[in-house]
Design goal:
Layout lengths: L17 H15 L4 E6 L3 E8 L2 E9 H14 L11 E5 L18 E8 L2 E8 L19 H8 L4 E6 L6 H16 L5 E5 L10 E4 L8 H8 L6 E4 L5 H12 L3 E6 L4 H10 L4 H7 E13 L4 E2 L15 E2 L11 E12 L6 H8 L4 H10 L5 H10 L5 H8 L4
Helix pairs in contact: 1-2, 5-6, 6-8, 7-10, 8-9, 9-10
């Protein structure tokens, strides 16, 4: 990646096409670096551009303050947003094939991007979510799921009724997993099953799926859309995200009436997912009867080959490991010490024979402190167990585990 002062150094601010060229350069740099997000933060000095690479923000460029509004406006044009509304948040999709040839003939390739703007003290802030290229993470086998999780997930996707939830914090790859599952279902059914989705927003087009997007201005929210979708004779339903009780109740009801339902949910662990649904007021019998599986995941940076062994046990940062490696940094990894990411997954199967006691605890509305040991007893491998194995195998470092999972187990 270019140094922040180099990326835009040859562009002339007086050029009428300056904003267009800047947008082209920034988006192309994000694609080249395989970043997940491009942040444009207005400050007193100018518009700071940063890329989120492997979950960490890194500086990219600084746009002069006098031209910051023009660059944001250009982005809004590409996403078909209202350029004159700078006092309210907006969201839109960017559909682009390649950049303006005058700015260096930079090709974006098959791009899926989403723009979000927000008013701040120094002007509009913008974040562009850069989705994976077509063909990347298409199917479940491409995600790097553990050998014990992949067949189990495929099995539950073969069910005709019930709910499969993918949980985790923001940026943990939940939507990517749901889309891969959806493509898996399309391939398995070969057109024999009716698949529909209700999303906010649609992040990627999936052939073979009838995808719909919420429209608050028309009164079409997730819960309302889901109720109408049930009249479309679906067999598999995808809800982009369960955010509130109304959507959760509609989703659970759909999974109880002969539909396979997939959705994402914000929670720190598989057991916390159960706890949060109970706290939302979802009836315990509905959870016990409808939930097939909860897949909770986190993304950790993978150590580059330049990593070295840790000799001082104090550098294990309290993790119960016998050996570990730490990042060093080289040209290949951009001096970060990491290249790419690995997926940590805990999968809780609620219909297995071993999960009978866990099911009874759910019916009793047990606390998560009670549910967690029962989940482990049912055969669930926790994210911490996965993390320890990843450290000992040299895939990641103790520092990265602490950065993502924190201190408490």
């Amino acid at each position: 990646m270019n140094h922040p002062e180099q990326l835009l150094s040859d562009l002339k601010p007086a050029d009428p096409q300056y904003a267009s060229f800047v947008v082209d350069r920034l988006l192309a740099a994000g694609r080249a670096a395989q970043a997940s997000d491009l942040h444009l933060q207005p400050t007193a000095k100018g518009l700071e551009a940063k890329l989120r690479i492997d979950g960490v923000l890194q500086p990219l460029a600084l746009v002069p303050k006098a031209l910051a509004a023009n660059v944001i406006a250009r982005l809004k044009v590409t996403a078909e947003l209202l350029t004159y509304r700078t006092d309210t948040p907006q969201e839109g999709r960017i559909r682009m094939g390649c950049s303006n040839v005058e700015s260096g003939d930079i090709e974006y390739g098959d791009v899926e991007m989403r723009l979000s703007t927000f008013p701040t003290l120094h002007g509009e802030r913008a974040v562009v979510r850069l989705f994976g290229r077509t063909g990347q993470y298409e199917r479940l086998i491409d995600l790097g799921l553990p050998d014990d999780v992949l067949p189990s997930l495929k099995n539950v996707l073969g069910e005709t009724a019930g709910a499969v939830l993918v949980s985790g914090p923001a940026g943990s790859g939940k939507t990517t997993t749901v889309y891969a599952s959806l493509r898996e279902l399309v391939a398995q059914s070969n057109g024999a099953r009716c698949l529909v989705s209700m999303e906010d927003p649609i992040e990627s087009a999936v052939p073979g799926v009838a995808q719909a997007q919420v429209n608050p201005n028309a009164g079409l929210d997730l819960a309302t859309g889901l109720r109408f979708l049930l009249r479309q004779d679906p067999e598999v339903i995808v809800v982009g995200e369960i955010r509130d009780r109304a959507t959760a109740e509609a989703a659970m009801q759909a999974s109880l009436t002969g539909h396979l339902l997939l959705s994402t949910f914000h929670a720190g662990s598989a057991v916390e997912t159960l706890g949060r649904l109970l706290d939302m007021g979802i009836e315990p019998y509905a959870l016990r009867s409808s939930l097939l599986a909860i897949l909770c995941q986190r993304l950790l940076r993978r150590l580059c080959t330049c990593a070295v062994e840790i000799n001082n046990p104090d550098d294990f940062l309290g993790l119960p490991v016998r050996h570990a490696r730490r990042p060093v940094g080289c040209k290949e990894c951009g001096a970060s010490g990491y290249r790419g990411r690995i997926l940590l997954v805990e999968m809780l199967l609620l219909k297995s024979a071993k999960a009978a006691e866990l099911g009874r605890a759910v019916l009793d509305k047990a606390d998560t402190t009670v549910l967690k040991p029962l989940a482990v007893q049912s055969g669930m491998i926790t994210r911490w167990q996965r993390a320890i194995s990843a450290v000992e195998s040299g895939a990641t470092s103790p520092a990265e585990v602490r950065r993502i999972l924190g201190l408490a187990k």
